[in-house]
Design brief:
By secondary structure, the protein is an alpha+beta fold. Helix content is 37%, strand content 19%.
């Protein structure tokens, strides 16, 4: 067996228990009394976990031994050497992991899981912290930033954020963790309220590199949807018929290729930020227009950024 496998096992156990693990060849006396079935299926080593002597059994061919055989072999060996015996594997199907657990077999899957009921251990590989946090800003995080930029107070727990913005707890939690990861907010130690570290122009300048258009997609229809807000160039022109709705409401819209109305489906609810409940807010409007190449959109975006007061 390669030293790499032993090293990986040692490092994996140490990562959980913070305990130096020494793995050695079993003594000649024990080697002499091992049954043929053990010698042919496992490389056996002596070690200690939390001061308790154990035997690590590295499977020679993981695909050829079943959970029931492993259980039988480890019971036989434990009775023979009077030590807890642990099967060490590099990979195993999930259904066999369940069978090993059901049979209370001591096992280590290197880098993934350590289940040793003899020592009352059930440890699994911890997911990387904030693995689901991407560089792109979540829609709710952007909505929260714009909410604060409107001068509104936002000192709240995650549960309160779910109620205020009408989202699920997981959505609010992901937005809060993204804002924390980028240094926009801090969380109180006692009351768990989140609070922004920056306000006004300072918050805008720091957030702008992350802020994106709120529009997820654009569709056409022959009627104006309920609770739709005037958006796009229509905010400043009666000739246009552009409206914004939240994506949750888009499923009720019947699309028509040459419809009279242009409907912007937004990633966050535009009503939350609207001041008059008729038009979308100017900050979101700017973000929806600033990257457009047509002359009218560019002109309105430039006008907006000059007039917006933070």
């Amino acid at each position: 067996m390669t030293d790499k496998r032993i090293q990986n096992t040692r490092e994996y156990i140490h990562s959980f228990l913070n305990d130096k693990i020494f793995i050695r060849q079993i003594t000649d006396d024990i080697q002499k009394i091992l049954p043929i079935v053990i010698k042919s299926n496992y490389d056996c080593y002596s070690a200690a976990i939390m001061g308790i002597d154990i035997c690590l059994c590295f499977a020679k061919d993981e695909k050829s031994i079943t959970p029931s055989k492993i259980q039988l072999h480890l019971q036989m060996l434990a009775q023979l050497i009077n030590k807890p015996c642990i099967i060490v594997l590099e990979d195993i199907p999930s259904y066999n992991i369940k069978r090993l657990i059901d049979q209370r077999v001591n096992f280590i899957i290197i880098g993934k899981q350590m289940y040793v009921p003899s020592l009352m251990l059930d440890l699994r590989k911890m997911p990387a912290k904030d693995k689901d946090i991407k560089d792109q800003i979540p829609p709710l995080a952007q909505c929260m930033i714009l909410y604060v930029l409107q001068g509104k107070n936002l000192i709240a727990t995650i549960s309160e954020i779910t109620e205020l913005f009408g989202v699920s707890y997981s959505t609010a939690n992901r937005a809060v963790r993204w804002l924390q990861s980028k240094g926009f907010i801090f969380t109180g130690r006692t009351n768990k309220n989140i609070q922004f570290l920056f306000l006004g122009n300072e918050l805008w300048d720091k957030a702008l590199p992350y802020l994106i258009s709120p529009i997820e997609k654009t569709i056409r229809t022959n009627y104006q949807p309920t609770n739709a807000l005037i958006s796009g160039c229509s905010v400043f022109s009666d000739k246009m018929k552009t409206y914004a709705i939240y994506k949750d409401a888009s499923k009720d819209i019947s699309e028509t290729i040459n419809g009279d109305y242009t409907i912007e489906v937004w990633k966050y609810n535009p009503i939350i930020l609207s001041k008059d409940k008729k038009h979308v807010d100017f900050l979101s409007l700017y973000l929806s227009l600033k990257d457009n190449t047509d002359e009218e959109s560019s002109s309105i975006a430039n006008k907006l950024i000059k007039e917006i007061k933070l």
